[in-house]
Amino acid sequence: MSTLRERLKIIQRSIEQSSTKVDRNPSEIALLAVTKNISPDKILEAVASGITLFGESRIQEAREKIMQFPTHLTWHLIGHLQTNKVKEALETFQMIQSVDSLRLAEKIHRMEVQLNKTIDILLEVNIGEEKSKFGFREEELTAAVSNIKKWDHLRIRGLMTIAPFLENLEEVRPYFKKMKTLFDRFKDMDILSMGMSHDFTIAIEEGSTMVRIGQAIFGK
Question: Whole-prediction pTM value?
């Protein structure tokens, strides 16, 4: 059975290979470790292996974990955020990757005004237009960005998506390609968060700057 450090080396090698295949520098791609349902000791093992960027889906689980770890680590919320949990999220995370509606963005902005803080956000795009997923539709995005830019306590750093889960990875490629086209519309964005354990190599080939990996690091 492979160790976490060995699995991490395999992932880093895959990131390098996917990057060089399309003439990209591997250093352009950030690796976010998804720690939903992962025990603190496994997270510490990941920290010891050099990972400093982590993603959580549930606020309460994240709060309980984060207080146990060194302060130099960075934590992003990657799961759906309910409007009644915004204050807790802002007290817990350095970035909200899952801003999926204008209503949520406005609630975050209002809370940040009260707290006199500014938060980095990504706008979540439902690129496959799946009913089971949250996010802006492709045709809503330009107007949403224009609206959110008026709120000076939010910094739009980029876009995030969860592509449809398809066995044939080549069938996923068009969704990532479409996301890169959307991302390129907005010249001041610098993060394109797409690609997970099963499809991150294709995401990198199509322009991802951040991959969110859980199972491939921590095992099943």
Answer: 0.95
